């Protein structure tokens, strides 16, 4: 008997596999295809010859924990304790899984805002808890009345994703005020804030839970070095949470992975001394603007993109197919892979929208646009 009877192969795996089979340009899965910073590779090369290949302490490499505390202070003016409020994780996904396993109990309810990343639901189900899916508005703004209506005495956690995958939407000040009001009404709810794209925002600055004094003592914030530094294959992220929550999270973490790859932790620790996170947003904004320019005269309608490295487009003027079939035909007939947005909804809501990843070198974006322009 399966513990996850309704879980199927991830749409990201399906589309990436098809892209490889048909030699298509893969704009589906969210990973960069350009080289990482040479300064980082030089650090790795140097550290490879040093004594950094054994277990680190369970919570993380101590110098890296201190650097993360400094990064949070620099970025958000929040003071966190490196020893008790930070945990280095095997990617943000493991951090999210571990947080849910540690804090959610059988029969609890967890609110997920759709469209949502597919890694949220499984750990809830494995807790024998109930995921409660609440759809965002069609413009991807939160419907706070519906979210509040979904809350009850059984609600243990609300998961938010900001900046938002797959839509590129970011929450604004009014959203956080509404969230704070909601948390005043439900004082036992915990917030899990997935902020892996925190440094990839454009015209409007990302507002982090780190900056919200009314929320952060009841919140777990998940971050990703993989997303921030274009090293998704390293699978390294971190959690920040108040000590009373982090104690429980660490209990699960120690039996799940115990400690994270030592070389990657040491390398990122050294890299944080010489890199500026302030430049990341402008780097990806140039990518976004260039990709939007390339598609501006195509038949695709470009939706707003406020953050992340994803561009959602409507193909309504091109086809009446459902978005999954359209993406399959896009690979087979036109050689470009995308992700259908319906897979991010509980019931497969189909608005004829698909998602492209623009974290690619310019030559790849240009060739992809050339193919898409012919449709």
What does this structure look like?
The chain has helices spanning 11-21, 38-47, 62-76, 91-103, 121-126, 144-150, 173-185, 225-228, 243-256, 262-271, 280-295, 323-334, 362-373; strands spanning 25-26, 86-89, 109-114, 130-135, 155-161, 190-194, 219-224, 237-240, 301-302, 310-314, 336-337, 339-340, 353-357. The chain is of the alpha/beta class. It folds into two domains: 11-36 and 278-373, Aspartate Aminotransferase, domain 1; 55-271, 3-Layer(aba) Sandwich (Aspartate Aminotransferase, domain 2). The strands form three sheets. A seven-stranded mixed β-sheet has the order 2-8-7-6-5-3-4, with helices on both faces. Strand 5, helix 7 (173-185) and strand 6 form a beta-alpha-beta unit. Helix 2 packs across helix 10 (262-271), helix 3 (62-76) crosses helix 10 and helix 11 (280-295) packs parallel to helix 13. The model has no long low-confidence stretch (mean pLDDT 96).
What is this structure's SSE topology?
Elements: H1 11-21, E1 25-26, H2 38-47, H3 62-76, E2 86-89, H4 91-103, E3 109-114, H5 121-126, E4 130-135, H6 144-150, E5 155-161, H7 173-185, E6 190-194, E7 219-224, H8 225-228, E8 237-240, H9 243-256, H10 262-271, H11 280-295, E9 301-302, E10 310-314, H12 323-334, E11 336-337, E12 339-340, E13 353-357, H13 362-373
Parallel strand pairs: 1-11, 3-4, 3-5, 5-6, 6-7
Antiparallel strand pairs: 2-8, 7-8, 9-10, 10-13, 12-13
InterPro entries: Aminotransferase_I/II_large (IPR004839), Kynurenine-oxoglutarate_AT (IPR051326), PyrdxlP-dep_Trfase (IPR015424), PyrdxlP-dep_Trfase_major (IPR015421), PyrdxlP-dep_Trfase_small (IPR015422)
GO molecular function, one term: kynurenine-oxoglutarate transaminase activity
Protein name: Methionine aminotransferase
């Amino acid at each position: 008997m399966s513990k996850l009877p309704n879980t199927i192969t991830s749409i990201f795996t399906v589309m990436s596999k098809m892209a490889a089979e048909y030699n298509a340009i893969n704009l589906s899965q969210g990973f960069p295809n350009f080289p990482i910073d040479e300064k980082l590779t030089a650090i790795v090369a140097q550290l490879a010859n040093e004594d950094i290949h054994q277990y680190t302490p369970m919570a993380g490499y101590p110098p890296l924990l201190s650097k993360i505390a400094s990064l949070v202070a620099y970025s958000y003016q929040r003071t966190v304790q490196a020893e008790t409020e930070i945990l280095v994780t095997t990617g943000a996904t493991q951090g999210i899984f571990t947080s849910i396993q540690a804090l959610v109990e059988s029969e609890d309810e967890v609110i997920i805002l759709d469209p949502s990343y597919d890694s949220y639901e499984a750990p809830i189900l494995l807790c024998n808890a109930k995921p409660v899916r609440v759809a965002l508005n069609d413009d991807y703004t939160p419907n706070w009345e519906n979210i509040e209506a979904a809350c009850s005495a059984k609600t243990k956690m609300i998961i938010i994703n900001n900046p938002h995958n797959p839509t590129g939407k970011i929450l604004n000040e009014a959203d956080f005020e509404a969230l704070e009001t909601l948390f005043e009404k439900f004082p036992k709810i915990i917030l899990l804030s997935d902020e892996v794209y925190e440094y990839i925002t454009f015209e409007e600055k990302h507002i982090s839970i780190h900056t919200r004094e009314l929320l952060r003592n009841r919140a777990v914030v998940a971050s990703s070095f993989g997303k921030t530094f274009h090293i998704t294959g390293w699978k390294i992220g971190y959690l920040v949470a108040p000590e009373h929550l982090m104690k429980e999270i660490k209990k699960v973490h120690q039996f799940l992975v115990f400690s994270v790859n030592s070389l990657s932790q040491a390398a990122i620790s050294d890299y944080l001394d010489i890199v500026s996170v302030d430049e990341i947003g402008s780097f990806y904004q140039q990518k976004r603007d260039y990709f939007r320019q390339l598609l501006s005269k195509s038949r695709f309608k470009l939706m707003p993109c406020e953050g992340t490295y994803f561009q959602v487009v409507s193909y309504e003027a091109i086809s009446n197919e459902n978005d999954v079939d359209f993406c399959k035909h896009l690979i087979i007939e036109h050689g470009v892979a995308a992700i259908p947005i319906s897979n991010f909804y509980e019931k497969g809501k189909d608005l004829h929208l698909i998602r492209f990843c623009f974290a690619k070198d310019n030559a790849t974006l240009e060739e992809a646009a050339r193919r898409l322009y012919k449709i």
